[in-house]
Amino acid sequence: MKKNYIVITGGAGFIGSNLTNYLLKKTNFNIISLDNYSTGKRKNHIKNKRVKYIIGENKNIFKLLKIYKKKIKVIYHFGEFSRIYQSFKECKKCFDYNITGSLRIIEFCILNKIKIIYSASSSNLGNQGKDENLSPYSWSKSKNVEFIKNSNKWFGLKYEILYFYNVYGRKQLTNNKMAAVIGIFENQTKKGEPLTVVYPGNQKRDFTNIDDVIVGCYLAFKKGKNSEYMLGTLKQHTVLQIARMFSKKIKFVKARPGERFGSFHMANNALKDLGYKPRIKIRDYINKFKYENNL
Ligand SMILES: NC(=O)c1ccc[n+]([C@@H]2O[C@H](COP(=O)([O-])OP(=O)(O)OC[C@H]3O[C@@H](n4cnc5c(N)ncnc54)[C@H](O)[C@@H]3O)[C@@H](O)[C@H]2O)c1
């Protein structure tokens, strides 16, 4: 039977919705988004008869996708609790989504012989792997990576693991407790408020534009070799440097638990295997944002 669906868990979220758009243009597959809308009501739905939005929890995937299971080519598993700081405040929810829910997704892929493409986090790579213990979020993401890789050896699961690095750009959250730093800075800049930099501000991050990331996600589907790929830019900026690109008005806020001081990259075959070359520079993006908003 011809497999003609791509499933994206978290398909109504930031990366998932941008990827949906891209896959519609680059492939002939129909897309199913499975999302519980936990990051709020978002206007990310794309009106297209090839896209179906299913509202529900990942942990119910067996029931929700029962009728499609034989027709699914690949599952991009992006629908998880996705912020470090909030994972301390909502630890139970983080584990329910990232452990209970993700185990069911992985099991569904194993039993139905579907490839999984997993959204891993660079936050658990640093400090010779010890940074995976810095927060419930990082720990849960790193356990899923281990389980997926072991499932390949134990049960023949096909996979690609994609590490994302501080993704920003179109459709990101800007005014929400799950917003990330670029979205928060954009919102504060527009309102003329001082930018809140988490002390000490010299935390370094690799900031990657969504338009580069979705190309990497697509290439992993087309060319991935059951491997791990880092979809960063290999360039790092401190949070303070980024804030100063936006505005002179800056206010420090208290240091937070779970904070890392650098973004870590391992040996990476993203260029060799996938031909992945990120093109967009964060400085150019911020300058464009300020120009378009008369700031
Ligand atoms: N954005 C980044 O910089 C970044 C960096 C590293 C890793 N990641 C990972 O990439 C993935 C996507 O990130 P994003 O920035 O698009 O996040 P997002 O919060 O915008 O999107 C996640 C989506 O998943 C949905 N979701 C969460 N838990 C779910 C569940 N249990 N069942 C069904 N749907 C669920 C949410 O409602 C949301 O729409 C996440 O797994 C995140 O951990 C993102």
What would your notes on this structure say?
This protein has a domain at 5-167 and 208-232 and 262-279: Rossmann fold, CATH 3.40.50.720. It is 39% helix and 18% strand. It has ten helices and 13 strands. The protein starts with a strand and ends with a helix. The structure holds nicotinamide-adenine-dinucleotide (NAD). Nicotinamide-adenine-dinucleotide binds at residues 9-10, 12-16, 34-39, 57-58, 78-82, 97, 101, 119, 121, 164, 166-167, 178, 180.
Our count of helices gives 10
The second-level CATH architecture of the domain at 5-167 and 208-232 and 262-279 is 3-Layer(aba) Sandwich
C-alpha termini separation: 55 Å
CATH topology name of the domain at 5-167 and 208-232 and 262-279: Rossmann fold
Order of helices and strands: EHEEHEHHEHEEHEEEHEEHEHH
- What hetero molecules are bound to the protein chains? nicotinamide-adenine-dinucleotide
Oligomeric status of the shown chains? single chain
What is the total tally of β strands?
13
The CATH superfamily of the domain at 5-167 and 208-232 and 262-279 is known as: NAD(P)-binding Rossmann-like Domain
Main β-sheet, in a few words?
7 strands, parallel
- Mean of residue pLDDT? 94
Basic shape: globular
Q: What percent of residues are in strands?
A: 15-25%
- Helical content stands at 25-40%
Question: What's the CATH class label of the domain at 5-167 and 208-232 and 262-279?
Answer: Alpha Beta
* Strand numbers in spatial order across the main sheet: 3-2-1-4-5-6-11
Return the structural class.
alpha/beta
Low-confidence runs of at least 5 consecutive residues:
none
